[in-house]
Design goal:
This protein is an all-alpha fold. 73% of the residues lie in helices and 0% in strands. 26% of the residues are buried.
Length: 243
Amino acid sequence: METLHKDSQKHIGQFVAEDFRTAAVFSSYGIDFCCKGERSIEEVCTKNNIEIDELLGKLHQVQSSSTEQSIDYRSWPLDLLAEYIEKKHHRYVEEKTPVLRQFLDKLCKVHGQRHPELLEITTLFIGCAKDMAAHMKKEELILFPFIKRMVKAKMEGTSIASPQFATVENPIALMKHDHEAEGDRFRKIVELTDNYTPPADACNTYRVTFAMLEEFEKDLHLHIHLENNILFPEAIKLEKTLH
């Protein structure tokens, strides 16, 4: 509680400067972290009738969440790995996409004339968001349930009906093709953003948006790695043992 009280006098801009991920928390409360970042947490909470402890609790939760990826995913059962990808990485895409689209739209309106590359970056990201939404639904409704059924059949020593897609290799090939397309899109975004380097005249929203895009790409890389290099090849092996 002492830390919460101390941080109530901290400026919004300080939180965002120390950890850009906190920007999404402020945005969810309608708090302007960009142009009005010099206000204290206590000040904005009083003005907007927000519970200080609630806001600081969410900020600290974001700050303390680890981004380390030292887990041995190869040791996981395939049904658990599929569930993890859906609950962690699919949910991440669903949560971050609307925030990033909002920020990119704002940047295009305010800075688009001086930085026309923002329009192309936004178009690329919107394409990514649309295709990823469809891609993830295919995995959640078709591919992942079949992988879970194969795991169950293996454990119980039972047979499994042949799927409509004949073999698991067919949907996997489509998913890998989608992954390549998103990799290409983000390579272009990296190029257009100069490796996520904000220009000299960038405001806080500009800096946060580029940092969020970089984090989004890193999460996408891990997401694709878990599928392409672990889940998919092991699912193909598992299907062969069942036949």
